[in-house]
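Study this protein:
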Amino acid sequence: MVADADTAERALELVPETEPHVVLADVRLPAMSGIDLAATLRQEHPTVKVLILSSYANPSYVKAAIAAGAAGYLLKTAPDDELVSAVRSVALGAIVLDANVTSELASGTPQSAHLLTDREQDVLALVAAGLPNKTIAARLNVSKRTIDAHLGHLFTKLGVTSRAELVAWAARHGLIGE
């Protein structure tokens, strides 16, 4: 049986009714993350496998998902046939990791860091220096809205949600000094 849920809480309600072999969960869900959902399912329904789907190839997300009991982590950009194959593999007991995720885990610098534009790297360095957006904008001779946009892109590319997380992530991955 197949079911669809908008939230992790709704998914938890549907699992006893539908008895799925595999649950596909977005890493970012309202109220409870897909990672938290995986941990809860591991406790309450240990036979159900969880395959995390995400826009973020962030190694910390992948490690947290696997630690929580997820059986796989696949990027949303994966082709349909790869998704089908991953679901089948997870159902059979395999651990499945997207190739992009695997290479990020293996390398010292995540691939997402290589996707940063020169301007995003400039903004990142100035954020790490503790400068507010208005000052960064003045230094780079652009508007504050432009800096806000660059920060939004950085947050999305690196899978972080705050300036503090951004700086910590960049320091961990050697993009800035600690």
